[in-house]
Structure formats: structure tokens, C-alpha cells
Design brief:
CATH superfamily: NAD(P)-binding Rossmann-like Domain
CATH topology: Rossmann fold
Number of strands: 7
Strand order of the largest sheet: 3-2-1-4-5-6-7
Distance between the termini: 31 Å
Number of helices: 7
Helix content: 40-55%
CATH architecture: 3-Layer(aba) Sandwich
Number of domains: 1
Strand content: 5-15%
Shape: globular
């Protein structure tokens, strides 16, 4: 299946986890990739692995507006349009809500929500030319109650709401905008982010069920590839849960 032959896709958060798996999946389906991540070593390794599928690489923090704007100006000068934008880049932090530090709140909101806004804002002119797709990675934290994730849940809820705004505003012009909401996915971010001191073990099942279904990032990448492809031409403005039934 080569749904992305001759398609140009911009992908953030490509150096690890869901973003890395998505890069591999899209490359396997014939995509030409422009990848963005702040992890220089991760981007270098991805470039080495995929080689001819990667047209451009950017080591960049998407919360930097001027840097993000410059990236898309360069992309526009070289390629005029893109066919899909996939925003995976994000960070996670756990803390008791009453103890969240302002700098931690700001960093998570700036990266996850505002960074996604910057990416969409500056990609939109090129996506409207192609009548393409945006897939933003939200979370079940945007849809259900997750303990210790005040900033993260707020950022992901914002992504889901913002994405629906774009879907309505630009759907009439041929652009589709959808969200993927993963949970119970085995990534370094989900399994290695420390939980707060004195956490209540009864609440763990809402985040990563010990006895439930835990899947690979590859299983999220397949859903992202679907929503970014022409197979999803009549799907717009949804939150697609990829959570093994966690919120069911």
C-alpha cells in the first residue's frame, strides 16, 4: 500500500516514540518527509535510517514561533505546498495539581498547545493549496479524567478544541483536520516520566493499565497514516481514540 507516493508530509516529534513510528510508516507508504524535533541525535539517526525518504530535517523546538515561521517560509520557497502536517511533538509531566510549578505549566502548554498552533498556523497556506490533511496528536487526557496531569490535560484539551475550530473553518476549503487520542502506548515518555510523590495507586489504571492492553507506537502510527491519507477524505473534526478501550 503506497498511499503517500509523491506526497510531501511535515512531521514534528519525529525522533522518538509515536513520531518515530509514524515516520517509518509514512516512508514505507512512499511519503517524502520533512521532519522536525529538538533531539539532534534522534533526527540524525532517523535520517540515516530512512535516507532518501527524508527531504529536510530541522532540529527545532516548536514552541519557538520565529523559528517555526522561518522553517515554513523555507519549505514554502522550496516546495510551494505540502500534502499533510502531522503534529506529534509534545512533553508530559506528572504532579499533584496543587503543586504544579508555574514554569512546568508554561513549558507544557507552550510546547504542546502553542507549539501545535504555530505549526498549523504557518503550514495552513501550503495545505490549502493541496487541500491536504492535518493530524494533531491529542490524548485521552483531553477526553477523560487523568490524575496528576493538570498542565498536560489542559494542553491536550486545547489541541482537540483548536483542531475542531480549524476543521470547521477550513473544511469548506477542502482541508481536513483531525486528532488522534492515544493511551496505553509504550513509549519512553509514558513509561519513564516520574509519578508524583505519594501518588494514589488506585488512579494508575486511568493512565497506563497494568493488566490492560498496552500497545506499540506502531499501532498509533497506522491510525495517523489513515487520517493523513485520502482514505479519510470524508472524516473531519474528530478525536479518534487509540486506547485499547481505556475510556470505554
Amino acid at each position: 500500500m503506497k498511499r503517500f507516493n509523491e506526497k510531501l508530509v511535515v512531521l514534528s516529534g519525529a525522533a522518538a516514540g509515536i513520531g518515530y513510528s509514524t515516520a517509518l510508516r509514512l516512508a514505507d507508504e512512499g511519503a517524502n518527509l520533512i521532519v522536525i524535533d529538538y533531539d539532534a541525535n534522534g533526527i540524525k539517526a532517523l535520517k540515516k535510517k530512512l535516507n532518501s525518504s527524508i527531504f529536510e530535517t530541522y532540529v527545532h523546538d516548536i514552541s519557538d514561533e520565529e523559528g517555526t515561521k522561518k522553517i515554513f517560509e523555507e519549505i514554502c520557497d522550496r516546495y510551494v505546498s505540502i500534502d499533510a502536517l502531522i503534529n506529534v511533538a509534545g512533553i508530559l509531566g506528572f504532579d499533584h495539581s496543587k503543586d504544579v510549578k508555574m514554569q512546568d505549566w508554561k513549558k507544557i502548554i507552550d510546547t504542546n498547545l502553542t507549539g501545535t498552533f504555530f505549526m498549523c498556523r504557518y503550514a495552513l497556506p501550503m495545505l490549502l493549496i493541496s487541500k491536504g490533511n492535518i493530524v494533531n496528536v491529542s490524548s485521552t487526557a483531553a477526553l477523560g479524567s487523568h490524575a496528576w496531569t493538570a498542565a498536560y490535560s489542559a494542553s491536550k484539551g486545547g489541541i482537540s478544541a483548536f483542531s475542531k475550530t480549524l476543521a470547521v473553518e477550513y473544511g469548506v476549503l477542502g482541508l481536513n483536520v483531525n486528532c488522534i487520542c492515544p493511551a496505553s502506548i509504550k513509549t519512553k515518555m509514558s513509561t519513564e516520566t516520574p509519578l508524583p510523590d505519594g501518588f494514589d495507586k488506585r488512579l494508575l489504571k486511568k493512565i497506563m493499565p497494568v493488566d490492560g492492553v498496552n500497545r506499540s507506537p506502531d499501532d498509533v502510527a497506522s491510525a495517523i497514516a489513515f487520517l493523513a491519507s485520502e482514505d479519510a477524505v470524508h472524516i473531519n473534526g474528530i478525536n479518534l481514540r487509540v486506547d485499547g478501550g481505556l475510556l470505554s
